[in-house]
Amino acid sequence: MSQRQLHLNLNFIGAGTHSGAWRWPGNRADAFLDPDYLVEVAKIAERGTFDAIFLPDRPAHPDRSGTGPFPALEPTLVLATIAAATRHIGLIATVSTSYNEPYNIARRIATLDHLSRGRAGVNLITSADLPSAANFGLDAVPEHAQRYRRAIEFAQVLQALWESWGEGALIADAQSGKFIEHDKVRPIHHEGEFFRVRGPLNLPRSPQDKPVLVQAGGSDDGLELAAAHAELVFTAAHTLDDAQAYATKLRQRAQALGRSPNAIAILPGLVTIIGSTEAEAREREAALWELSSLEQGLKWLGGILQVDASGFDLDQPLPAGIPVPVNGSTTFARNLLAKAYQPGVTLRQLLRTRGGGANNHRAIVGTPEQIADDIIEWFSSGAIDGFNLMPIILPSGLEDFVDHVVPILRHRGVFRHEYEGTTLRAHLGAPSI
Amino acid sequence: MSQRQLHLNLNFIGAGTHSGAWRWPGNRADAFLDPDYLVEVAKIAERGTFDAIFLPDRPAHPDRSGTGPFPALEPTLVLATIAAATRHIGLIATVSTSYNEPYNIARRIATLDHLSRGRAGVNLITSADLPSAANFGLDAVPEHAQRYRRAIEFAQVLQALWESWGEGALIADAQSGKFIEHDKVRPIHHEGEFFRVRGPLNLPRSPQDKPVLVQAGGSDDGLELAAAHAELVFTAAHTLDDAQAYATKLRQRAQALGRSPNAIAILPGLVTIIGSTEAEAREREAALWELSSLEQGLKWLGGILQVDASGFDLDQPLPAGIPVPVNGSTTFARNLLAKAYQPGVTLRQLLRTRGGGANNHRAIVGTPEQIADDIIEWFSSGAIDGFNLMPIILPSGLEDFVDHVVPILRHRGVFRHEYEGTTLRAHLGAPSI
């Protein structure tokens, strides 16, 4: 296949991206805790030959704003469960670099790579929220630049530990009794601002040599992390111009650091609401909207903007003059404010464009053809390499995508008909460096 | 069934307890990294209606002393893999309290409890070795008492986080849209010597309410941790008198802390070498001995006693005057020195009684009848509640136990014929407190 190929991940969130999805008729409201459900959804994505399952995470309870499923089960364990029931699909776990030790994470992700025979990836985030900080002994969220310095050093330690077992270091020759080529297993002696790690890893080199490193978040600090270490980036882009501008900046920066500009796959989030007609898709969206909570929407908005939004009037625009918070999720806040301050937009309308107030990504509503057209338009621009798909409702919204959108993408020659390899790197076309 | 029942765990170590086991004809030397092998062994233990799989751990590379499989894959992920392929057997992961945050571990173990539908347990260790310390920024192992103060506080935080979701807190009622009863989910506001954790856990109460807490290690500090928090204790006892003395001390201490003296199941380690005749068992042991490394044995001994043993003469006794190290694995060192300083014991003989120098537990060599007799004798004394079994070789040594020893134990009325419940607590007869 010579044509450039699209990459698709499933961003697997509870019952779907929409905050009303868990109440959808036929869905089990507590399915987000059920291993059979997790495996069922993963198998649908594997049937659609997706590159990977992507699990978000946040190491804190959503508190009183939580009115639906949230990232509860720990991602690496969920992915080990999914690995046991699948053969091909990649497995990407989100991990906070602020509240973990790199030795433990290097080991857990390499373990997942062994257990899945080469399908593991890790998405490094810095955790911008206070409730997470308070679970790890802190009174305040560490400042943005410091969090990212730690994340970059964290990524360096992961890479060094994954390289600490040279090729052929595990001999395991019963005849001679030689188990390890000790000279090929080397301490890393890392000493940095945040970590001192002697190494080596206590785990032989994993099937991918190194699991895939993923980064999410579009601040300048985040871009620096992505340019230096990421092989896949999960971005938020609401216009093709934005996506193009980000891609140019990221690829230039990667090149300046000596990497190939094409070494990084860029996948924006994309919320999909599918119907057999556009009207049906819009009806589905409206029906979900009826099941979602405006109260939660306001709390979510308050969280992103770091203001108390509980008293805001839903039929008025967002009060003027709210700045991008200094120490939060910069990209999300910037995108949200840009939309909120468009003329005549009420809070109710703003929340509604956000799938019930539970996400920060671009949404498309339409038929399989419309959705495939949109995907191919963005992909063909060259700005992006695919999407982190966020079906508005699971499993049905994913089934619709796999059964009706994927065949169009295949027919147009931009997406695989079957897996050509068994590792995440093979799906991404990313050699381990 | 009214008779008091025996509890059996499989202490799952690579290719078996013996350091030569990975070289045994027919065994694959790299099987310790293979998920199919892990599942195969677990299924044999489940066929034998064992209470649980117990995975040891050490977050550091064994360095140059490693001449065989070692705890490489991270235990909680291995157990998630096993959970997906089994229905009944309990799943106990060893975790270092010195090099983890309690919020992360509370969440991972509760996640395992959800994914396995109530079969999770966690064995808290303090990690007495320098290589582990050096992977987490330290130049020295924290002193013994401090490690255990941290472990006790760690256990308190785990318990509090597991209790932070009250019964019925997860509503998940699609009809009303009520997802969480927020008043039943409470922060823990823990502030101690080592940890400050706000909570609550970001995970609804798990099937066992609280996963099972396990402790291993017999120092006074360890006993304090066990008496206060453990529901299962993995001990090392070489004589029934020792086991009796330890049990009396532990049960008295638990009672003084207001717990029932029978709330703790005591399971010493037991290495088994099985043959259809005693001579066959001894031949098997001798054949394994031929496959093991004396060099590794000396390094292992040096590690326990914190001396350089590489120059010691194997045909002489251990040099006189070596003390129990102040800051190490106290029980292991004490047991080892007691045996080493018996009159006339050479180093070669000492290492040989240790299954090739790779373990610290009592070993029995014999027929299924002899092994069953021994187990029942210890069990009937009342000092112990069962064993953490360490087959000298896997999977064949475990198959021998399940096919030939388990039927005798069942016939004599001390061991279950089938599982009566589906949770680890049910197997242990341990209500969640």
TrEMBL record, chains A, B:
Residues spanning the signal sequence: none
Domain Luciferase-like: 27-383
Pfam families to which the protein is assigned, alphabetical: Bac_luciferase
Record: residues binding FMN: 57, 94, 144, 148, 219
Keywords carried by this UniProt record: Flavoprotein, FMN, Monooxygenase, Oxidoreductase
Keyword Oxidoreductase: yes
Example GO molecular function: monooxygenase activity
Family of this protein: Belongs to the NtaA/SnaA/DszA monooxygenase family.
Source organism per UniProt: Lampropedia hyalina DSM 16112
Keyword Nucleotidyltransferase included in the entry's annotation: no
Protein name, UniProt field: FMN-dependent oxidoreductase, nitrilotriacetate monooxygenase family
Matching PANTHER family: ALKANESULFONATE MONOOXYGENASE-RELATED (PTHR30011), C2H2 FINGER DOMAIN TRANSCRIPTION FACTOR (EUROFUNG)-RELATED (PTHR30011:SF16)
